[in-house]
Write a structure and sequence with these properties.
It is a single chain. It contains 20 helices and 8 strands.
Length: 448
Amino acid sequence: MPVYDRSKLNDLLREISGGAPCPALLLFGERSLCQQAAEQVCAALCAKGGTVHAIDGDSEDHGSTLAKLRSFSLLGGRQIFRVNGSRLFLSKNVAEAIWKKAVKAWEEGSADKAGRQLRAMLAAAGLDSADDPGSLSEEQWKKCFGFAKPAGSLSWTGTVLGQMEAVKSGLAAGDAGELLLAALESGLPKNNTLLLLAEELDKRKKLYKAFSAKFAVLDLSVDTGSSSQAKKEQEAVLREQIGNTLHEFGKTLDKGVMEQLLERVGFHPAAAVMETEKLALAVGDAPRITLDDLNRMVGRTREEAVFELTEAVGNKNLEKALFIAGRLQENGIHGLAVLATLRNYVRSLLLFRSLLEQEQYRWRVGMAANVFQEQCLPLLKANPRWQSELSGHPFALYMKFKTAAGFPLPLLRDWMQLLLAADRRLKGSPIAADTVVQHTVLAMMIRR
C-alpha cells in the first residue's frame, strides 16, 4: 500500500474493505484527525467482527505490545492493537517541534497536555520520562534535543512532570522499533493488526521507511503556520469537518454562519466538530442553523482570540484592549495564558525595538516595505542569533519593526515589570484573575 494523504482516506478504506492484507497501519498528523480516521479504519477492519485493544502510547510497555501482537487470540474476528500517541517514530530531530507544543500548552494553562508533550520530547531524546529537561545545562540540552536551550526560567517543566506519574517501559523505543519490524517482516497471526497513531515523527527513521514501503501510511498532517497557503489548508480541513457533522445531523447553515463559526473556533478540528454538534442538537427539529443560534450557543473558543488582545495593544487601542481582555475571561481562557501571550508580545517588541535602534541595520522611520526587504533584512539575517525570530515572511517582519518603532524601550521595560507583578498576583494572591488582567492591561496602556 502507498502513503495516502487526507484526500485518499476513502481509497484506503475501500482497499481494507476489499480484503487487502493489512498487518500494520500508521496514521500521523493532527491529533483529532488521526482519532477520527482510526475509528473509520477500525470499523472497516472489523466489518466481519473483531476487537479493538486500545493502548496508551504515553505508558506503553513496548515488550508487552509486541508479545500480544505475535500471539494467537482465542477471540473471534480481527484483533486490532491500537496505540494512541506512539513514540516509535520519534527522534531528537522532532524534539524542537514537540517543545513548542509543550510551551504553547503550558501558556494556555493546560498542564496535562504540556506534560504529555514533555514526555514525548524526553522519549525522542532517549531520556527517562521522569527526567526534568529544565534542569539540564545548555550544553546537555543541545546534545539531548538538538536545539539551543530556551532563555528564561524553565522551572515549570519540573512542576508539570512532577504532577504526572513516572512511566517506565521495559524496552527502549529504538529496540522496540527493530523488534517490531522483525516481527512484521516474519509475519503476524492472520487476524492481528497493529494500528499506530502519532502526532510527530521523523521520516528518516528506518521504521517509518519500512511502513511507507511495505505497509499502509496515512498522512493527516496540516500546516499550522500563518501563511496564506497554511490558512487556506486549515480552513479547508475545518469546512470538511463541519460539513460532515452537519450531514450526519441533517442540518444546514444560514448564509454567513459558516464564516462566523470558523472565526470563533479557529484551527481546532475537534472543537469545530463539538461546536457543530452542539448547534445541531440545540436547534432541535429545525433544519437550519441561524446566526442567532450561533451567537446563543457558541462562544469565542479559539486560542487565537488571545492574540487579538496583542493587536489592540500594538494599535494603542485602550477601549478595544480592555473589551477583548474581558471577553477572553468570560470565555474561560486562563489569566496566565493571557499574561503569557502579552509577555511574549512585549518581548518581541523589545527585540525589534532594540534592533532597529542599531545603526548597522539601517532602519529609518517611514521606510517602505520593499526598501526594508532589500536593505535591512539581509543585514538582520546575517546575525545567526536571531534566526528563529527573523524567519517569518518579509512583510510580516516589516510590520513588526514598524509597530516596535512606536514604543520606546523604557516603556517596554516597564511593561515587562507590570506583567511580572501581575503573574505573581495571579499565583500568590486572592485577587480575581479577571481583575488582575484588566488592571494590567489598563496600567500598560495608560503609560507613555
